[in-house]
Amino acid sequence: MELSFLTPLGGAFALTALLPLAVFLGRERRARRIRAQLGLRHPSHRSRLPLLAALAAVPGLLALAAMQPVIETSRTVRERTDAEGFIVLDISRSMLAAAEADAPTRLERARLAAERLRERFPEVPIGLLSMTDRVLPHLFPTTDRRVFSATLEQAIGIERPPPALFFSTTATSLDSLAGIPSRGYFSPSARKRLLIVLTDGESRPVGAELRGAFSRRPQIETLLVHYWERGERIYETGVAEPGYRPQRASEQILDRLATLIGGRVFRENATGELEAAAAAALGIGPTRERLIDDERRALMPYATILALLPLGFVLLRRNL
């Protein structure tokens, strides 16, 4: 834990405390002279200390707020140096399909699976990609689960961004996975590379060029997870859209893709088998310690609110 100040020069505001203190001392001298002439007893200095402290505390706390204090916390995690993974989420519109209007959509179920995989392999850097008729990176491999969860929640959404061929009946193109081996998404030091694709498989037919793309070395172990049920429909307005029907050929399309790239296909409920296959692909390897900035908490609002307490005391003392 570390305390830092974003604008330390704001502490100069504390000098404004001299003005109310000077006014207070001037009024006290005049009051003492009047009491002496009237023969009245002078109040003790101790009785004046709370008011003096309050007069100094108000600008002091506001000066502290102006300095913008921040508490930064960090943590150390173990991180694999020889392995990385990417989770690809299909964000085409067909991933809105669900068994019922209030049931989780395919994408929502895929998000939960991605979170489970992140927790299952805490030492492996894992990134996030989205896929329609193109693959786009949202997060490069990291062991920071907080960043992973935030990216998954805030950046991954249906057609964000939309497919380039928006006029096409089937927006998803699994051929777009061919760009992953050649675009440098994985670090050169990652000898063990894992790709997990969460998709409904409703894609245009895949081409044989995928075989050549995934023949590069190091080999990318690819696991395909099929999110698809025959009776699912899109209920974006609460009523099943008549224009959408599940693509029956999705299973065959994923089987062909797996054959071309040397991958494996899993049903979405085969969680144990999927995790076992991922663990086998990643194996065991060397790790290193990595320092992760965990949280930054601004203290300025608290200092500002705290300044109201001595200010209220001053006003109450004046009125009484």
Overview of this structure, please?
- The protein is α/β, with parallel strands linked by helices and about 325 residues long.
- It has 2 domains: about 1-70 and about 295-320, no CATH class; about 80-285, Rossmann fold (3-Layer(aba) Sandwich).
- The protein is about 35% helix and about 25% strand.
- The chain is built from 9 helices and 11 strands.
- The chain has helices spanning about 20-40, 45-65, 105-120, 145-155, 210-215, 250-260, 270-280, 300-305, 310-320; strands at about 1-5, 70-80, 85-90, 95-100, 125-130, 135-140, 190-200, 220-225, 235, 265, 285-300.
- The strands form 3 sheets. The protein has a 6-stranded mixed beta sheet with strand order 6-5-3-7-8-10, sandwiched between helices. A 3-stranded antiparallel beta sheet has the order 1-2-11. Strands 4-9 form a two-stranded antiparallel sheet.
- A hairpin with a 3-residue loop joins strand 5 (about 125-130) and strand 6.
- Helix 2 packs antiparallel against helix 9 (about 310-320).
- The mean pLDDT is about 90.
